[in-house]
Amino acid sequence: MNTIILSGGIGQWIKMLLAHSGTSDKWADWAEPFIYIAIIAAVSFLIAEVIYRLAQLVLKRLLRLHSYTFLKKMSEHNAIRRHSHIIPPVMMLALLPLAFDSNSTLFRYCEKIVWLYFAFTLTISVNSLITVIGETVFNNSRYHNRPIKGLVQIARIIVYILMAIIAISILTNKSPLYLIGGLGAFAAVLMLITKDSIMGFVGGYLLLENDMIRIGDWIEMPGSAINGIVYDISLTIVKVRNFDNTMATIPPYTLINESFINWRGMKESGGRRIARGYVVKLNNIYPCDKEFIDRILSKGDKLLNFISEYGKENLEPNSESIDTNVGLFRLYADKYLRNHPRIRKDMLIMVRTLEPTSNGLPLQFYCFTDTTDWKEYENIQSQIMEHFASVMPLFELYPYQSSSSRDTIISGMLEASFPIEKIKGMPYNTTK
């Protein structure tokens, strides 16, 4: 009722204005609706501007009182301005029937234009809101490593598609459902033209849906240049910063079609695996009997210090499990790893022999460090491997090493009964 009264008042004012200006009745009847529309548009934009100013003032005061992330993002992206654009077309749609005859051609054209304007402003408003929500969620520590950017892009694309369908339905006077049904024939042609984009869209969606990668994940693709930290995930591309600080990009569907390693589980567990070892010479494996124990104990204080540190019982042979110097060394290595301050005791610790090879018997040390930091991990691993390399000769065990030209010369000198005292810098294991 108030709208009709307002409309009637505006109409009377327009007629009085045209009459005072000396416009003929014929031109007055023709010009009145357009003047009415101009007034509606001006009032609508003025009201929208007033509402925007008030809302912006309220937002600034709220930010002074509370530092909410959502409100900050609203201010950064000027979302209130984009939302205020919806007001003018809504007011025009409400007042337009009062300016024209609803059966006239001019009314139908004007109505379509305003509806298209409304669809355009609604698209801008909704996408702005999606962006604000996406960045707000991304700033949350719980979701910071989630690929929120890809989800935001998917939502924005869906909004664009829906609004495009609505715009076409407005222009053609067809139901949106009718247009959606007719997209089947068009989809076949569309897939040929935009195959890569569609595959990227599907791949990106599958990555997000199955939580295959997140921002901050360390991924590795064998046989490719991908080996580093994921720092950006979008709908059509995944960006990786490799460990040599080079940048690599890869389409999401490649990660779906090919295998890759995600080290996220290792980081979340808090422990990184060590699986290193040495290949022991087979001709240096001896029975662990009393004679052998006495022989290695007679080598000096160095082994005696190890015995006092880890307990002499660790060198006592056990006929059930330890009957060689390799088994004795495995017991020592296991004890050493279990007492190491940087090795996780709640994870698997194991020292084992593998299938013999032409070079000897592989001996593997299997455990987990208490850190996933690359540098610390390498330091811990290096220290353990260096320690075992220095201790193995005390158990009369020697890692396999390919012969060099110097070894060949020394071997020939020994076979020729050359005095060993004259061979300078000869390795200990060369005399064995």
Distance between the termini: 111 Å
Helix tally?
17
> Poorly predicted ranges (pLDDT <50, ≥5 residues)?
1-6, 428-432
Radius of gyration: 40 Å
The helical percent reads 55-70%
Major pleated sheet: 5 strands, antiparallel
Arrangement of strands in the largest sheet: 4-3-2-1-5
Give the count of structural domains.
3
Q: Mean pLDDT, as a whole number?
A: 76
Order of helices and strands: HHHHHHHHHHEEEEHEHEHHHEEHH
Derived from helix and strand composition plus strand pairing, the structural class reads: alpha+beta
Q: Which shape, going by the Cα principal axes?
A: elongated
Number of strands: 8
| Fraction in beta strands | 5-15%
Tell me what the structure shows.
- With 432 residues, the protein is α+β, with helices and mostly antiparallel strands.
- It folds into three domains: 145 residues, no CATH class; 97 residues, SH3 type barrels (Roll), CATH 2.30.30.60; 132 residues, Alpha-Beta Plaits, CATH 3.30.70.
- It has 17 helices and eight strands.
- A five-stranded antiparallel sheet has the order 4-3-2-1-5. A three-stranded antiparallel sheet has the order 6-8-7, with helices on one face.
- The relative contact order is 0.05.
- The N terminus and C terminus are likely disordered.
